[in-house]
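Entry:
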Amino acid sequence: MALPRLRTVVLVSGAALLTRRALKRRIARSPLWPLPALPEPVSGHSQRRATAVRRLLITERSEVAEGVVRLRLEGAGLPRWEPGAHLDLVLPSGLVRQYSLCGDPEDTGAYTVATRLVADGRGGSREVHEQLREGLEIEVRGPRNRFPLTEAPAYAFVVGGIGITPVLPMLRSLAASGADWRLLYGGRSRASMPFLEEIEKLGADGDRVTVVAQDETGHPDVAGALAELAPGTAVYCCGPELLTDAVAAALPAGRPLHLERFSAAAGDAAGPGSGPFEVELRRSGRTVPVAAGQSVLAAVRTAAPHVAYSCEQGFCGTCQQRVLEGEIDHRDDLLTDDERGDSMLICVSRCRGGRLVLDL
């Protein structure tokens, strides 16, 4: 009699153990269990942010122009990157800022970035200039690329100041391949324009580079530089809004423009979707009001302070969230058409109706 009873106890205990394990897995899949599990969230897990976090050592710090600091960040076995890519720097204060990679994509032992001090900015560049020194370790994320160099029969670049950083690796690559390219490079003064000597050497063959220092000759002639472009020429621009707007205005209708801004494009504060609305956070079961003039990000963080963000201007992609319901008023220049179908950047974009439902 003892043996059958023992066998029964073992079987019951085993079944209970399997049930507990299955229950734990079920709860892990859905924090709202026993409600039906929602699909795997996109929010916080998009491919744009699916990059490793690393700690790199600052081994070199140099001033490459007035107010511009270059940092060399070393580590072992770093992923290669393509021209136009950027790196997220997690600064000692916790601020996250994006800086274009301007070194050698084939160098798997270091990343190089450069940043200009913006005295009236949001504090990131000041922290880089005042606190980042040789011998300090810093956390980085990336690299990622939203400004890639595409294949084309010819290239025209219009750059302002520190906007040269993502373009410099492109020019090195094009010069090495013998491609047809031209560059209009403007800045306040020659002393303030980073990498100017290297740029002029790259363009010495064929007068490819036009340098315009504002204190010498005024503003660059953008329309003249882009007049009579050969068919198929890829046009790239990186710089302040006045420059990017001038380039966009100078291009013929239908001519594509590869653009990277210093900040988000100015939006229409009185346009559709600028009034108050509600945002439901589906996974947490909370609903928060968004006031007129308040960002979705600011409202959401009152209920979900863990939500990641960085630029707060709609051009870095850190705050991208999946939208389950509601009509989105997109106010960014970053997301692709496919991404706009079911996601938004909550730092700038809003709702065209009275309610949005986010996958949070």
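The chain has nine helices and 18 strands.
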